[in-house]
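Hey,
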Amino acid sequence: MMGRTSSQLLRAIWNDPDFQRYGTNEKLLFIYLLGNESVTESGVYRLSSKTAAFHTDLPPELVAQILLQGLLKNVTYDVDTQTVYVRRLRRYNTGGNPELIRVAVAREYQRLSDAGKLWDQFFEDYPEFIQIRGSITVGERLENGSATVPEPFANQTIPTPSPTPSPTPSHALSGESAERGSGAKRATFPSDSEGFVSKSPLGRRVSRRGAVK
């Protein structure tokens, strides 16, 4: 999900000439495309027309018509991959850490690389990100959720955790102790002839006279 706030988005959108030309249904769908939970930094993300219809309460047939016929000027929909690209989305999403944004876009490109024509439009709209295309092989899989990105962003990858050793079974330890115990010396305690009786319940030795040693 992008780092912008809803207030920033709404302040920017109302004066957009293209948005002002949309009808009521088109405006509702466009606002949804800008602000739903699947929105990414690049504006390229998976979305089915049924999901959009469910969230906006618009008829599914109308949503499909708007998306497939290109009735929203700044929106391109790939029906084969059910992926949408909200063009110029970053116009409404200024600010943020440039390095983190570039890493996020690189991961999105790797994860959604099957929507190639949408990414063609994205790199045309944002040529400053074009180096991402050359640094990642299309179709490459993410490893442990991290993407291979150009320097100086390589340190953003998630390391592979080392396996945790399995604990030694207790019965194995018992067997080893038994083997070592066969040659071990037994602990001895003073006998009655030495003036002592056995250990007290407190673990101390008690003399015949009752004195605790």
